[in-house]
Citrate synthase
Amino acid sequence: DTGYITFDEGYGNTGSCLSDITYIDGEAGILRYRGYPIEQLAEHSGFVETAYLVIHGELPKPRERMTFARLLSENAPIRQGMLRFIENFPRDAHPMAVLSASMNALGAYYPHLASNNHQNDLEHFDEAAAVAISKVRTIAAHTYRVNNGKPFNYPRPNFGYCENFLHLMFSEPYNEYISTAEVAQALNLFLLLHADHEQNCSTSTVKMVASAGANLFASVSAGVNALWGPLHGGANAAVIEMLQKIHNDGDDGTRFIAAAKDGKGDRLMGFGHRVYKNYDPRAKIIKASFYRALDSLNIKNDPLLDIAMKLEEVALHDDYFVSRKLYPNVDFYSGLIMRAIGIPVNMFTVMFAIGRMPGWIAQWREIAQNPKMKIARPRQIYTGPQIRDYVPMEKRA
Ligand code: SDX
């Protein structure tokens, strides 16, 4: 009754699965991608390089880095048919609905990468990975443009991954958006910190779908849907909505926390974690970068900042939260950074999906490459009625 889903033959129904991608120690607050501490990657690396590491297992050599960057640049545009597909969603469609549909649609536009035969799909893996990582960013930005009644922008071949995203999002017909180094760095760090996180809900969903032999795009599309849930990837948006509600109620957080503690109010979004029973190391890094960017990203004047700091201060010393080992997680501060960059709240979970794409891809391949792979088939404890005979309609009261 552990609820674990079994991907590996050797583990029977008792445990989880084998993976060599990400290591987490929840008690010690440790997170490593392929053995590299997240703190070192946050300081020295960037999202594209970290995506390569998560997917291929090693830091790229100069030529590998160039080839990967070229593949991402070549795959940045999306086909006319998909542009029409995206622009025909209702203008107020939630971006996560558009994203999951569009990621799945990539399988239709690139059938040679989505044969649902893992042997064949693995032969085209590098191209499929570049299509998924590059186009998730373009699709996200195009969705924002449709949501806001604006014309599409087109990728610039000479722009980096984050710079191109910000250009696709915010350039206007007579005013190209050129991001500052601080904004591009803040976005790079946000995406890097989300690149993978072991067997979380959405990644397990990707692996469940992959275990049936499904192609990469169908699998990550399912991951997008799982991530959309407010207890998972939707939490970053829920944090800002929570802070905004506290602000609008004229509360400084005290009343909100009291209500959360006696179970009458909402949960403290951005707090707590199934695995981290200490401070989420990503939250520490994002908070530190956040304070460094207070001036350059003009966050200092954000009224929600004071409320966030008050909530954290109270919760870190309140027995209700401490006794339940509820500490800030990656979502608590990330929303404030995205808000400072100008990304609307309904796009926050989409940003999480962009960051998590390399992890989903790496974990999909772990399934597809595993010769001992068996379809995931969770079991249950039956609690329904015992055997009984059919009752004809005339005999039903
Ligand atoms: C992510 O798994 C991953 O790795 C996910 C993720 C990733 O990178 O993929 O890290 C991303 O999803 C981060 C988490 C984002 N979600 C939120 O911030 C939503 C708010 N947090 C929670 O809903 C909750 O903390 C979870 C879902 C994250 C974890 O919940 P658990 O471990 O299943 O804990 P629980 O629901 O069993 O709660 C235990 C107790 C309960 O109280 P009691 O029944 O003991 O009285 O703690 C309480 C809960 O009510 N509690 C909270 C709380 N979280 C748990 N009380 C107030 N505020 C909260 N946030």
